[in-house]
Design goal:
Elements (H helix, E strand, L loop, with lengths): L7 H11 L7 H8 L8 H13 L4 E3 L7 E3 L6 E5 L5 E4 L2 H13 L11 E4 L2 H10 L1
Parallel strand pairs: 3-5
Antiparallel strand pairs: 1-2, 3-4
Protein name: Transcriptional repressor
Organism: Blautia aquisgranensis
Pfam families: FUR
């Protein structure tokens, strides 16, 4: 593969994602980058998100609601989605990562390159709101 030409906009997208923990959608990335690059197009944001995901610089989360979300943190970790407010939260668990790596290593029908576990439930904030309403 040829070397990737440097792009300020692409680097800004990557840095924006790495500075956040809320796993924004492409629209959120676009709205925030327009403050820096007023002429940036939504298509440019989508193309760069796709490219960064393809080359492993960011992670694309496709199984959390209707819109894809993006994660600037590429180190192995799982995600939790609140089914009430749709927040996506990083889950860091060495024991879980160890279990997933072990299962992947024992897989005999091919070679596993990546493991992604997703958890669904209700976040602390939504649980607190439910308690107050009760």
């Amino acid at each position: 593969m040829a070397a990737l030409k440097y792009s300020r906009q692409r680097e800004s997208i990557k840095e924006f994602l790495r500075s956040r923990t809320d796993h924004p959608t492409a629209d959120t990335v676009y709205e925030n980058l327009r403050q820096i690059y007023p002429n940036i197009s939504l298509g440019t944001v989508y193309r760069n998100l796709s490219l960064l995901s393809d080359i492993g610089e960011i992670r694309k989360l496709t199984n959390f609601g209707s819109a894809d979300r993006y994660d600037g943190r590429v180190a192995p970790h799982s995600h939790f989605m609140c089914t009430k407010c749709n927040r996506v939260i990083d889950m860091q668990s060495d024991s879980l990562n160890g279990i997933l790596e072990q299962v992947a290593a024992e897989f005999v029908h091919g070679k596993v390159f990546d493991v992604d576990a997703s958890f669904y439930g209700i976040c602390k904030e939504c649980l607190k709101k439910e308690e107050k309403q009760s």
